[in-house]
Amino acid sequence: MNRSTMKYVSSKLVKTKVLLQDPALIPYVPRTASLTLSRLLLMLNRYKMVYIKPVCGSLGIGVIRVERNGALFRYRDGTHTYTFRTFRQMYVSIQHRIGSTPYLVQKGIVMLQLRHRPFDFRVMVQRNEKSIWECTGVVARLAHPKKAVTNGSQGGTIYAADEILSKVADITKAEKLVEEMKKIGLKTAKQFSASYPNMNELGLDIAVDRNLRLWILEVNTRPDPCPFTKLSDATMIETIVKYAKSYGRVYELKCNKAQKSVSTSHI
């Protein structure tokens, strides 16, 4: 298919290459490559923790966290953790689990946490009614207590971005981080639309590490706006739905698995 007519891109590796074409976005992109035995070992030795993901997966399905801890190797798939004495034993087990599905390996980002639960952010960017890119929402996703992924579809809990950031940074810094996420979203939209001019919306998954540095974990070209339905303030989801209708997309907002936010004082 001609790039000029494409609205969606499924390959995470292709989307990573698009990001890396903009020098301003390169610092936000964790190292990402096709999964092979040698590459997984190399990146584990360097980073100690990585994520492997289906190249064309979605909703956090099939995402596995892999770690090296001294002489031991382990991976976490869903709510289960498996430990091995050798790398090869672990790799054979992973291969058996993923089968022939193409996977990638990505540098593991140690995300900020609340009560040992990691959280990241979904940044929604859309063309508005004048076809100009606009950031229409930023929301935080707190991982299910027994899982490594934050997706609402995997039982994550949704919070307002500034509410959860204020637990780990002062208000001014929290506001600056949210503004930086919005700028990254708009830069990403500009870069993607240069390659794929028919695109109308993007959903960025952005992590914040312990040094308050931002990382683009993934870019979704057909984003699910469900997390925004869980906020008490409906402003963001109303704008998202309105803009989507202007370019011909109607969402099915059946959001049963994501958990509605409660006060962060209860986390």
TrEMBL record:
Which N-terminal stretch is annotated as signal sequence? none
Q: Which residues cross the membrane?
A: none
Assigned keywords, A-Z: ATP-binding, Nucleotide-binding
| Pfam families xrefs | ATPgrasp_YheCD
Which part of the chain is the ATP-grasp domain? 18-245
Q: Which GO terms describe its molecular function?
A: ATP binding; metal ion binding
What InterPro entries does this protein map onto? ATP-grasp (IPR011761), YheC/D (IPR026838)
Q: Does this UniProt record's set of keywords contain Ion transport?
A: no
Would you tell me the protein name for this molecule?
ATP-grasp domain-containing protein
Q: Which organism is it from?
A: Paenibacillus antarcticus
